[in-house]
Amino acid sequence: MKILCTVKRVTDPEVKLKIGADQKSIATDNLKYVLNPFDEIAVEEAIRLRDKHQGEVIVVSVGPSDVSTQLRTALAMGADRAIQIVHAGELDSDGVARLLQKVYEQEKPDVVLMGKLSVDNDSWQAGPLLAEYLGLPQATYASKNDSLESDNEKNKVPGITIEGTTATVVREADGGIETLKVQLPAVITTDLRLNIPRYPSLPNIMKAKKKEIKEHTPQSLGVDVTPKVRVLKFELPPARKAGVKVADSAELLAKLRSEAKVIS
Amino acid sequence: MLPEAFTAALKRDFPRDFATYDPKELLELGKDWTKVYAPAPSLAVLPRSTAEVSRFLALCHAHGVAVVPSGGRTGLAGGAVAANGEVVLSLSRMRRMEPVDVLGGTVRVEAGAVTQAVHEHCAPLGLTWPVDFASKGSSQVGGNIATNAGGVKVIRYGLTRQWVLGLQVVLADGRVLELGGAGGGALEKNNTGIDLRQLFIGSEGILGVVTEATLKLVRAPDELDVFLFAVRDLAAVLALFRAVRQKDVTIMAYEFFTDRCLDRLLRHRNLRQPFAAPATHYVLLEIERQATDVDKFIHEIFEAALVTDGVVAQSSQQAQELWALREGISESLSATGLPHKNDIALPVGGLEAFCGELDALFAMRYPGWEICLFGHIGDGNLHVNVMKPDAMGKAEFLRETKAADGHMFALVEKHKGSVSAEHGIGLLKKDALKYTRSAEQIEIMRQLKRVLDPKGILNPGKIFDAV
To answer: I need a labelling partner for B10 at 20 to 30 A (CA). Which of A105, B71, B155, B337 fits?
Structure first.
């Protein structure tokens, strides 16, 4: 089984972001980058599926040249080889999906695994757009029935079940669990409770250095990635005001009614 | 019972909310993280200024009322326990922090400032007060100073003692001393006679009450790399330490724990197993990245076959997760059973021989006991935790561990160690003091106590029995 898995470099969620001088970007000085946590889950799932069904895991990323750091992390987790599309400028979800479409056409994987969103832009778009452009079935927000403390999780059993050319995906829906069956090849996006990603071990970090990272550019793939979405302005949420102490529940209710106006 | 004249003066001369008699609050304020003593304070007071502390201590002094100074109460030796009807003097309301003096690299804070709040106060300026440990969210500066607190960064920065430039202390009779430069200043260099400031640091509240301090700050470290290694045995833990120390890296922390600690931690908290295959000994290493070639560093460690497995945090979140495996141990041991704690120090070079003899001792005399071993191994500091067997009663367990302690402390003495590396003596280790301090030294401590607190009202019965 050939699994294509996307990984995005995102700003470390632990670092406090600053808005750039142009008000349309995030200031990049002192930024730390990590692998998008949802993509980390996708990589973990890809590795488990590969270990169960044989085959290979190819990780792909789009971004500036130092995105190779995040690709190496995925390789150290256990992916077999990597593709990097070098692009330093702006990029929206549509551009990403069109680039991935080309990679898909070259690699012809059995399944594409992607994080359901990236924690920086929170767009949730790239997966569904890719499925649409490829005309493939999609199953979003893959989760699983087992808890993350279960023996299955400890034994690294994949949460996505593949039998023949059918994948069974469990997803959280409003008020319950929904089970989907999709025909492969398909695009599957991963949610938080699908698995607990492994730490890349140091021996694997060493081995990952020798694994192949193949480079492309949007030009070499023949894709125009001029953004269709234009960022007008970034703004920080208003600073939180200091709270006040109330004497009793009656005063609290009065304030909620007259000042906060959240109850009537 | 408190003298009537004392309680009358307390009501007359102090603000209405100065004291609390609420039994529930008293139970909280009268204890620390030790579980063995039943708190029984008569009342607790919460002053808002040094002047109030001074007036209150003068009143206690006049009436011979015993006082237990109290900070974040995260101590592990019973130093802040009020079990005999003492008055608890809580510094919690005194938590003001002055603006950071960037040029001097100092900050003046009140004793009740929480350690983590001090860190957050200094962080925007790229500075930090490098006293750091698992309980930093509760522990207070005054308590850190009174106990000369250690923690996980001692290997890099040393103990609290090294990071206090100025100190304001109130004596038992209410006199206020400014122990830095003149008039509350703080000097890096001040060789004018005996440095009384150092006398109060680590004195566990028996000589005076810390009310304010000028803290020395340091540049906050650059990016850190956090590693967790699986190693074969204690010898390998030490061999790895030797190897890492010879490399061109700045070690921020070198911590160790055993599989038993990890088992209890994972039973108590939902943290992920760090390695595919379990090991018996684990090392957490934190280094400052700076110019370190991390890849080369990793390569060399594996080439030398010093470890069986290892991971390195890929993000600050993973770094926190790895740290949680070490910092969560103490709490998890208490949550999953009753640990009898010992905090001993050995010369690093003598650790292996000591541990070998300790193993043999426990295997022979106390077979079947679960010993959870962890600690700041780079400082020669071991936390030896004996867990109460389920079948054994608490009273019997306390009796048995007391006997075991005697044997262990004799070993500590033989190997030129200390019976209390960083937790202090408090109530818990009084009997052990003699294994590390000579009779002459203890007598000088008592003489100092008599000079500064002639009536013996400050934290009586801590470190040694009251006379």
So the answer is: B71
A interface mutation test: which of B223, B270, B283, B315 has the most A CBs within 10 A?
A: B315
In percent, the amount of chain A with pLDDT more than 90 equals 67
CB within 8 Å: A202 and B274: no
Overall domain count for chain B: 4
Encode pLDDT of A136-164 as tens digits: 999 999 999 888 888 898 889 999 999 99
Residue B279 and residue B231 share a domain: yes
User: Do B229 and B214 share a domain, yes or no?
Assistant: no
Does the residue A256 lie in any domain? no
Record the tokens describing residue B237, joined without a space. 């833990």
Contact yes or no for A202 and B309 at CB 8 A: yes
- Whichever domain contains B362, its CATH number is 3.30.70.2740
Alpha carbons within 13 angstroms on the beta-carbon side of residue B26 total: 18
Out of B44, B66, B92, a domain closes at B92
Number of compact structural domains in chain A: 1
For residues B232 and B309, state if they share a domain: yes
Cβ-based neighbour number of residue B321 at 10 Å: 17
Answer yes or no: do B212 and B112 share one domain. Answer: yes
Q: Quick one: DSSP state of residue A155?
A: T
* Same structural domain, B112 and B84: no
First-residue to last-residue Cα distance in chain A: 59
Tell me phi and psi for residue A140, to 5 degrees.
-100, 155
Tell me the residue type at B303. Answer: E
Residue A251 resides in a domain: no
By the CB < 8 Å criterion, does A248 face chain B? no
A244 assigned to some structural domain = no
DSSP B73: -
Angle at B98 between CA B134 and CA B93, to 5 degrees: 60
Establish if B442 belongs to a structural domain: no
* Nearest C-alpha in A relative to B317: A14
CA dist., res. B141 & res. B98, Å (int): 14
B245 and B165 fall within a common domain:
no
CATH code for the domain in which residue A152 is found: 3.40.50.620
Q: A186-190 and A138-143: which strand pairing? A: parallel
Residue B197 and residue B136 share a domain: yes
**ipTM surpassing 0.85, yes or no?**
no
Q: Cβ of A164 under 8 Å from any chain B Cβ?
A: no
Residue B154 sits at the vertex; the CA angle it makes with B76 and B271, to the nearest 5 degrees, is 65
pLDDT tier for residue B292 given thresholds of 50, 70 and 90 = low
Nearest to residue B332, comparing CAs of B263, B229, B423? Answer: B263
A35–B contact, CB cutoff 8 A = yes
B320 φ, ψ (degrees, to nearest 5):
-65, -40
Give yes or no for A192 touching B (CB within 8 A).
Answer: no
Which residue segment(s) compose the domain that A98 sits in?
2-239
Report the distance separating Cα A147 and Cα B52, nearest Å.
55
Angstrom distance (rounded) from CA B403 to CA B398: 9
Does B305 share its domain with B290? yes
* B376 lies in some domain: yes
Any domain includes B208: yes
Percent of chain A beyond pLDDT 70?
100
- The one-character DSSP state at B376 is E
pLDDT of the residue at B365: 83
Does residue B302 lie within any of the structural domains?
yes
Chains A and B form CB pairs within 8 A to the count of 60
With respect to residue A38, please indicate whether it lies within any of the assigned structural domains: yes
Selection from B87, B82, B74, B91 nearest residue B30 by Cα: B82
Domain that holds residue B164: 106-219
| CA distances from residue A28 to A11, A15, A21 in whole angstroms, order as listed | 9, 11, 11
Q: What is the mean pLDDT of residues A165-170?
A: 96
Tell me the pLDDT tens digit for each residue of B29-55. 999 988 788 999 999 999 999 999 999
Q: What is the pLDDT of residues B246-280, one digit of tens each?
A: 888 889 999 999 999 999 999 898 788 888 888 99
State the average pLDDT for chain A.
92
